Amino acid sequence: MDKFLELAAKVFKVDVSKLSESTVYNSIAEWDSLNHLRLVGEAEDEYEIEIPIEAVPDLKTLGAFYEYIKNK
Questions:
Q1: Which residues, in sequence order, are bridge partners of residue 24?
Q2: What integer pLDDT is reported at residue 51 of this predicted model?
Q3: What letter would DSSP give residue 28?
């Protein structure tokens, strides 16, 4: 999870201490719709997976994002 939080922090351009597993989409200004898609792309590259576009709206917390990646 720590590595994923670091990735999210890089995408959102925030300090990793501002993020946790329970951080919710749009709960911080930096996690907007554009950065949501950027995080999808970065996660796909970093973890060598493909996240189908229909799954993207369900990834509402960083924890849900991480669980999705972990189960791929």
A1: 61
A2: 96
A3: S
